[in-house]
Amino acid sequence: MTTYTTANTVDEFRQHLADVQARIAAACAKARRDPAGVRLLPVSKTVPETRIRNAYAAGCRSLGENKVQEAHRKWQALSSELPGLRWAIIGHLQTNKTKLVAEFASEFQALDSLRVAEALDKRLQALGRSLDVLVQVNTSNEASKFGLPPDEVAGFVKQLPAFSSLRVRGLMTLALFSDDAAKVRPCFVRLRNLRDRLRQSAPDGIAMDELSMGMSGDYALAIEEGSTIVRVGQAIFGARATPDSAYWPASGEHG
């Protein structure tokens, strides 16, 4: 397992960001891809506001968070002093939390329920806002993970044009957590192949351009298989003291 060092100062954040961007560039070169086609989403779950300020000073302009209330609290504390900082919710969402997401998030990467889609759309319309969303797919077939089974995604996507404030951009997945690339890679291949099929059948107005896959331990592999968004937490901010089970119940999720 990789040991992740903690960034506290602006210079440390600059170095970590540069290291991650260099790895992204190397993975793109290996896959003969343009690095401009991969967006880095730093994941700031459990990171306090003080360190987020330093990450912002080092160049972070978007942050991913798993828990809505934690993200909303940080947004309230920081929005006036850190202009242009965008927040993406990348964890499971319950309908009773859609009001908060509609208020502040610019992106929601874990849509896997029509009830949540309907509740989000209603809240967004009331606020005159729209939201970029990705559909979460369970490509590892683990019962502990959220996300739709791959064979249910096409039918789900066909119903999304009913929710006019949701701008569907693509798909997201969490790979099997393993150091064995032979076990992890198929999760990424499955999502890419599904996206390619959906491009042929998705309704008008539904984009299938984005593939959000890959985290601190496997983002280079994900880029080789076509990822357009990598969600990187520990390689930027440092190892987390909070166990992953607090954020991804029993799924072994690492950002």
Explain what this protein looks like in three dimensions.
This protein is of the alpha/beta class and 255 residues long. Helix content is 39%, strand content 15%. The protein has one domain (10-238): TIM Barrel (Alpha-Beta Barrel). The strands form two sheets. The protein has a six-stranded parallel beta sheet with strand order 2-3-4-5-6-7. The chain starts with 9 loop residues before the first helix and ends in an 18-residue tail after the last helix.
Q: How do the helices and strands line up, and which of them pair or pack?
A:
Elements: H1 10-30, E1 39-42, H2 49-57, E2 62-65, H3 68-78, E3 86-89, H4 98-104, E4 107-111, H5 114-127, E5 131-137, H6 153-158, E6 166-173, H7 181-201, E7 210-212, H8 219-224, E8 229-232, H9 234-237
Parallel strand pairs: 1-8, 2-3, 3-4, 4-5, 5-6, 6-7
Offer a few descriptive terms.
alpha/beta, disordered C terminus, 8 strands, TIM Barrel, 9 helices, six-stranded parallel beta sheet, two-stranded parallel ribbon, globular, 255 residues
The chain-level mean pLDDT equals 94
What's the total number of strands? 8
- Rough outline: globular
Strand content: 15-25%
C-alpha Rg, in Å?
17 Å
CATH architecture: Alpha-Beta Barrel
Counted up, domains total 1
Q: What's the story with the biggest beta sheet?
A: 6 strands, parallel
Per CATH, the superfamily is Alanine racemase
Q: Note the gap between the termini.
A: 14 Å
CATH topology: TIM Barrel
Low-confidence stretches: 245-254
Order of helices and strands: HEHEHEHEHEHEHEHEH
Strand order of the largest sheet: 2-3-4-5-6-7
What is the class in the CATH system? Alpha Beta
Number of helices: 9
Helix content estimate: 25-40%
Structural class by helix and strand composition: alpha/beta
